[in-house]
Amino acid sequence: MKASSLTIGRPVLKHFACQSCARLLRIHRRYATTASETPEIFDVVCVGGGPAGLSLLTALRASRATSSLKIALIESQDLFQTRTWKLPPDQYSNRVSSLTPSSIAFLEDIGAWRHIQSSRVQPYHEMQVWDGVSGSRISFDWPGTGSEPPQFPQQKTIAYMTENLNLTSALLARLEELGGLTIHDNTRVENINLGQETETLNLSSWPVVELADGRRLAARLLVGADGANSPVRAFAGIESRGWDYERHGLVATVQLEGEGWGGADEKVAYQRFLPTGPVALLPLPGNFSTLVWSTLPSHASLLKSLSTADFIAMVNAAFRLSPVDLAYMHTQSQGQAEELSWREQHTKFDVQRIPQRIVGAQEGTVASFPLRMRHADTYIGERIALVGDAAHTVHPLAGQGLNQGQGDIQSLAKTIEYAITHGQDIGAQLSLEPYASDRYATNNLLMGVVDKLHKLYGVQSGPVVALRSWGLQAVDAMGGLKGFLMRQAAGGG
Amino acid sequence: MPPLVRRLILRSPSPLHRLSKPALFTSHRSHSTQLLSPQQQPPSSSSVSAAEVSHFNALASTWWDPHGPSRLLHLMNPLRHDFIASCLSQDASPPSTPDKHLRYLDVGCGGGIFAESAARLPATSSVTAIDPSPSVYCVALEHAKTDPSIRKTLTYHNTSIEDFPAPTTAADKYDILTLFEVIEHVKHPAPFLESCFPFVKPGGWIVLSTIARTWTSWLTTKVVAEDLVGVVPRGTHEWSQYINEEELREWFAKQREWGDARAVGVVYMPGIGWREVNGGERWGNYFFGVRKKEGL
């Protein structure tokens, strides 16, 4: 899988329509002298080898209708490292995503899921969500048959916690199995320009991607799977709008005192809404969990500066103490461990309904990144499609970012397949329209809800707190609405 | 049938019947294809009218604009392939091999919307596409240059079917001759259709799409599409030239060489797109396919 590879000679330019022998000879001669300047022609060039880009290419290679497409992948990281990624069973990466059953079903369809290191994947079956200010609580599980999602009648799993590297490594293994793909990794996109027009070939609507090593790839369809600062999106002149939350997402791999209150088979995800943002603890195999704490940038830097013992105390405090106590502990530069043991004695909480006590944090996994909300004005242009974070960046509180990307991929792969079987040019904007109209409204709705939730729980007092507490209790009491919310979380809504 | 529809249909005699009366096919049907070979075709009865050619010349520059006047045709194009696939699947011995074996002749290809798409399909061995309008022909040539994958498969000719030499050997004939949104623009559809016959292989198909001549099509294509909404440029359609599905069916039933006629109606729904609608062939846009008999 390493580095650039495989197949393909330079496109041979043949005569077309109004031809004469003389012109034909001239054309061949001209191309012979300028061969090095001619870009190599691909049907799909995907910039970005993260979960979204790799899923798209796997889907295209796995489907018979699209398997004859000539495809190239450009990735700045070393994909060999990703392909051979391995960690001991007592260590977990801090970039973990919650994959919904519908994302998993898609990954199974394209043959990637069987390459996953399944011992490192943790399904969970219940969510405990509560308001840090009022204490109102909602618990999500699948009680009996009533609220099971209809498309997964037998399953009781809400989502599967999966390390992103486990997923990308599995996708690369599947791509290796499928073959027939040109990979340029460990290299970056130097620039993107439109192609040239010659007497017989007009690439003036084709993006030509130039790599750092001077290689040039002309793309019938250029896919931007290149993240929030997408160079492909910039090339296409598509604006991405939104705002920064003035929050950082702090992540860490932590160790709990046990496997959870329900044991290994009944894992629970916890999320508590604090005025500074939600803090979530999502189960990994064994005693491990992954922490996602959205908080003020200053709090994030404090947390990162603490000793392991004090950091652990802060995380335990975040699930136990009142927002006032917690705010005080953020003013201390150290000594949070003692502070917690003292304050805990004076705080009432139901031990069974909060996560087990955290006893360790894996070295080197405490990290933070700024939280943003961004949505591209459109997902398509002439010979352009944006997927995943290049199209939308969402607050992580609903754990939907990667699943949204998988939804994009499923839709784009289907759109390309339809175009191929109906003779359409897969790069033409008209061919891509179904993808954009299918995904834009869906993503916009979800992003709106997640954004509103963030703002709703940012309020510390007054009628909003009373209303939202009433809201959580009401939702908890109404099985039907809860079922709907859970189906959304499970990706089936 | 509502009285208004009946009255409208009665008042507008079929272009097929009206125009074919003085012509050649009624009494000498079995020889008509010979009689109408391009060389013998009198200029006055050519399928192509000067007004139609100049109208489409004017449209040429926007032919491939996805938001231009041809947008509805672009959107309809995938359904043409679905219809052709449904015709081919009727075949008693369908060529199950996915390798390149189908030869297309696209008559009145315009800017090449269908011709290009047919050339991209894996089962296609060649597409020959003809159009009498010089500007439209240039648009088609220019646009084909933007896709290196079709250069070997697709050939354009700036000509009408009457002036295009018919193949002399069976192997050079075509599996599928297409007339998409063409016959409603043709003055004399019966001799025009007959001039297409010698191009089709025995067992091959003529597949066309057009609009029924009903009050609904008058309302949607002339009043709404051209005048009110403007999605179709004014003057694109001459409603009296529209041909109804049953007129085509009856006419082809009289042609000794042709059979297996089939049709499906399609309707454009704003916000949804084109959809096949059962029975739609009686009141709006429809696809029509008819097959040349083998062993005659």
TrEMBL record, chain A:
Subcellular location: Mitochondrion inner membrane
Cofactor dependency: FAD
GO CC annotations, alphabetized: extrinsic component of mitochondrial inner membrane
Catalyzed reactions per annotation: a 2-methoxy-6-(all-trans-polyprenyl)phenol + 2 reduced [2Fe-2S]-[ferredoxin] + O2 + 2 H(+) = a 2-methoxy-6-(all-trans-polyprenyl)benzene-1,4-diol + 2 oxidized [2Fe-2S]-[ferredoxin] + H2O; a 4-hydroxy-3-(all-trans-polyprenyl)benzoate + 2 reduced [2Fe-2S]-[ferredoxin] + O2 + 2 H(+) = a 3,4-dihydroxy-5-(all-trans-polyprenyl)benzoate + 2 oxidized [2Fe-2S]-[ferredoxin] + H2O
This protein's UniProt keywords: FAD, Flavoprotein, Membrane, Mitochondrion, Mitochondrion inner membrane, Monooxygenase, Oxidoreductase, Ubiquinone biosynthesis
Keyword Oxidoreductase: yes
NCBIfam families from the UniProt entry: Ubi-OHases
Known function: FAD-dependent monooxygenase required for two non-consecutive steps during ubiquinone biosynthesis. Required for the C5-ring hydroxylation during ubiquinone biosynthesis by catalyzing the hydroxylation of 4-hydroxy-3-(all-trans-polyprenyl)benzoic acid to 3,4-dihydroxy-5-(all-trans-polyprenyl)benzoic acid. Also acts downstream of coq4, for the C1-hydroxylation during ubiquinone biosynthesis by catalyzing the hydroxylation of 2-methoxy-6-(all-trans-polyprenyl)phenol to 2-methoxy-6-(all-trans-polyprenyl)benzene-1,4-diol.
Protein's name according to its UniProt entry: Ubiquinone biosynthesis monooxygenase COQ6, mitochondrial
Source organism of the structure: Glutinoglossum americanum
From TrEMBL, chain B:
CDD domains: AdoMet_MTases (cd02440)
Name assigned to this protein: Ubiquinone biosynthesis O-methyltransferase, mitochondrial
Residues where Mg(2+) binds: E181, E184, H185
InterPro entries: SAM-dependent_MTases_sf (IPR029063), UbiG_MeTrfase (IPR010233)
Residues annotated for S-adenosyl-L-methionine binding in this entry: R80, G108, D131, F180
Presence of keyword Calcium: no
Chain intervals for the UniProt region annotation (Disordered): 28-49
Comp. bias (Low complexity): 32-49
Protein role: O-methyltransferase required for two non-consecutive steps during ubiquinone biosynthesis. Catalyzes the 2 O-methylation of 3,4-dihydroxy-5-(all-trans-polyprenyl)benzoic acid into 4-hydroxy-3-methoxy-5-(all-trans-polyprenyl)benzoic acid. Also catalyzes the last step of ubiquinone biosynthesis by mediating methylation of 3-demethylubiquinone into ubiquinone. Also able to mediate the methylation of 3-demethylubiquinol into ubiquinol.
Catalysis performed (reactions): a 3-demethylubiquinone + S-adenosyl-L-methionine = a ubiquinone + S-adenosyl-L-homocysteine; a 3,4-dihydroxy-5-(all-trans-polyprenyl)benzoate + S-adenosyl-L-methionine = a 4-hydroxy-3-methoxy-5-(all-trans-polyprenyl)benzoate + S-adenosyl-L-homocysteine + H(+); a 3-demethylubiquinol + S-adenosyl-L-methionine = a ubiquinol + S-adenosyl-L-homocysteine + H(+)
Pathway(s) where this gene product acts: Cofactor biosynthesis; ubiquinone biosynthesis
EC number: 2.1.1.64, 2.1.1.-, 2.1.1.114
One GO term of the biological process aspect: methylation
MF-aspect GO terms: 3-demethylubiquinol 3-O-methyltransferase activity; metal ion binding; polyprenyldihydroxybenzoate methyltransferase activity
Transmembrane segments: none
Domain of life from the UniProt record: Eukaryota
Membrane topology: Peripheral membrane protein
EC class name: transferase
Organism: Glutinoglossum americanum
Quaternary state and interactors: Component of a multi-subunit COQ enzyme complex, composed of at least COQ3, COQ4, COQ5, COQ6, COQ7 and COQ9.
